[in-house]
Structures are given as C-alpha cells and as structure tokens.
Amino acid sequence: MNNIEKITKRDNVEYIGDIELDKECTVSDPCYNMETWCMCKLKDMLPGNYHCFIKKNNDGLVSTLYIYHEKYIREPKTMIDFVSVDSGQAGFYDSDYFIKTRGKDDEEWKWYKEICSLTYHSDSSELTGGTKDKKCCVSSSGDGDGSYPLFIHKNTKGQIVSACIQYL
Q1: Which of 40, 44, 77, 106 is deepest in the core (most CB within 10 A)?
Q2: 137: β partners
Q3: Average pLDDT of the chain to the nearest whole number
Q4: How is residue 11 annotated by DSSP?
Q5: Domain boundaries in the chain?
Q6: pTM here?
Q7: What is the pLDDT of residues 57-85, one digit of tens each?
C-alpha cells in the first residue's frame, strides 16, 4: 500500500493531487497580495513532492486541507498560526509560484478565477478543492470567511513534512 492509500484509508480523506514545494510555502487565501499581513509563510519545508487531500464533514463541507511530503504520513498536530480567509478558500502555494501569480491585474484576475474553479463547481454547487500547475493546492474553507488554525509536523531534522488548515 502506498502513502496515498495509507493516508486516504487512515484519515477518510479524498486525494486531490500532488504539488512540488521548495523550502518555503505560502499559506493564504488566493485573493491576498504579497503585502497582506494575515498570510502565513512556512520557511522550513522539506523540498519535494507533496500529496494533497481534503476531508469533508457529514454535510459535505470541506473541514480540512492537508499536504504530506511523499515520504511521510505523520499527521500535522502542532498548531503554529492562523490562516485568514476572505474569499471562502485557502491553500498551500510554493512561495516563488505565489509571488509570480501577483502582478498585472488581468493575469492575476485570470489566475484567481482558475483557482475559484477548483474550489467551487457551479454546475454542481459542490465546494471542494484541487491543485494547479503542480505548485499549489486550494480548497473551499467549508465555513466561509474567518481565521482557521494551521497545523504542522516536522521530521527529526526540523523540516516541515506535513501541514493542514482546519476549517471545521
């Protein structure tokens, strides 16, 4: 059984794709710009491939967004900060990628609309999550706007190997 199967079975979560992260990860609402005070930066990530998952509650709302380095399955249990949400969604982004998506209004607006299409499917009214460009994963925040706890787990070298935003 691979790690995706182990995590899916153990945590009753839905796998939504993989992303590549470097040493720094931005955790944010996708509507924020680089000057927004309430975004989070994770600076000690283990670079590599991360599996992304969402967990839904009994009402079908996204309750948690998870990322796990492909070589680790330990759950993130250490709360380190809060992630603010103003557009009903949040996610994990490779920091260099997130910076590149900020800029010219037309390009930024196009990117933002593409992100929104990952979290809300207008044809089904389903709130969900997804990945984009193998550099970010986002999800609906389940409960809308607010401030949500961010949890991490570090390996023995002090590198972050899993993280989650807990919405509900």
Answers
A1: 40
A2: 92, 131
A3: 91
A4: H
A5: 3-166
A6: 0.93
A7: 998 889 999 999 999 999 999 999 999 99
Decide: helix, strand or coil at residue 98.
helix
> Mean pLDDT throughout 16-22?
98
How far apart are the C-alpha atoms of 54 and 63, rounded to whole Å?
A: 7
Whether the predicted pLDDT of 40 surpasses 90 = yes
16-37 core/surface letters (b: 16 or more CB in 10 A; e: else): bbebebeebbbbbbbbbeeeee
Residue that the structure tokens 């182990």 belong to: 6
Cα–Cα distance list, 28 to 4, 38, 91, 103, 150 (Å): 24, 8, 6, 16, 11
State yes or no: pLDDT of 47 exceeds 80.
yes
* Confidence band for 167, pLDDT divided at 50, 70 and 90: very high
**How is residue 54 written in tokens?**
């969402």
**What number of H helices and E strands is found in the chain?**
3, 13
The answer to whether the beta carbons of residues 136 and 124 sit under 8 Å apart is no
CA gap 26, 37 in Å, rounded? 12
